């Protein structure tokens, strides 16, 4: 089971937590659908015992949550906020008492606003501040948290936050956003070293992965799919597993990337114990229009079902992702974890109080089978985590996209397990 701090915690200024780039972004008119904010979110900060009880009832054995950097170190640098760490200590202790293994993600996009003011991930200093924050958090929680994830989806954070302006911090830099990719990866490497120094036995990076499917078999579409795969998958995997960047000639980079300094790739390529795979759908690519700044265009799939988000439902893409990683990276690849997989479907309570969500049940059943198919083809997959426990604040969509196995009324905060919750509980109980 997986969640993230900004999307569920609320209590955005209660215990000394500082502002994040997402607080700033949600406070900017027109950025979030219907002006929703995460000031309360799912009120997990206060209701975490109830949420732990739900997970215990569900039967999950691992809970992936994220730590809020501005709750732990409000300025991004400077003093540590002991009250913020106290919250995570209470959460971890509650999980362990319930027999649930905590898996902590250090960064799920909520950069402290003072660091953004100083350049954010475009500035390499942020990578060093991230390593300091990792060390602070591990010093407090490392005796109980044994599983750590450094970053969540650095591609999305670079693309949506720095290149296209659809997420915080809202920059529209296109390919000039690439320093944000490198500095996140450098932060991953430096944080991995800091976690190891604190005794962490398991460190992982989580990327989003999507098979790049050419629109047709013609040369332009095949080249477009290869270019997209370079940007989405290999740019964020090759340096970590092989200590080098892929050839980015397709994007106009014919010389060494100027923001890569001596020693950076060695720092990034620290050995890791697992690679997290977030999967939602494949991406279909065609050759670009003449005026396009990128060497591909994204094309919608035909004649496939979609979620409420409009994302195509193609479970075989998860099998393809896991098998291709296994085949392409070979002995360089650590064990795989599916760290996010889920779907957005709106489901409201029926007259009898139940919440039927058959589409979600069908989605999860098909994707669990897709993981099993990948294992049968040689993929070493150690875990599968559903996104998400709760209907939460879904970034620019506010509360309109519903991914949870548990319905959350944003007005009352009442939690009601959906039919998919019962299905998944029975699935977990039936496994050997």
UniProtKB/TrEMBL annotation:
Give the source's domain of life in one word.
Bacteria
Q: For this protein, what is any one GO molecular function term?
A: beta-glucosidase activity
The EC class name is hydrolase
Keywords in UniProt for this one? Carbohydrate metabolism, Cellulose degradation, Glycosidase, Hydrolase, Polysaccharide degradation
Cite the residue spans of the region called Disordered: 1-22
KW Nuclease (keyword) present: no
A single Pfam family it belongs to is Glyco_hydro_1
Could you tell me what reaction this enzyme catalyses? Hydrolysis of terminal, non-reducing beta-D-glucosyl residues with release of beta-D-glucose
By its UniProt entry, which Gene3D superfamilies does this protein fall under?
A: Glycosidases
EC number in record = 3.2.1.21
| InterPro entries attached to this UniProt entry | GH (IPR017853), Glyco_hydro_1 (IPR001360), Glyco_hydro_1_beta-glucosidase (IPR017736)
Presence of the UniProt keyword Hydrolase in the record: yes
Q: Which family does it belong to?
A: Belongs to the glycosyl hydrolase 1 family.
This protein is called Beta-glucosidase
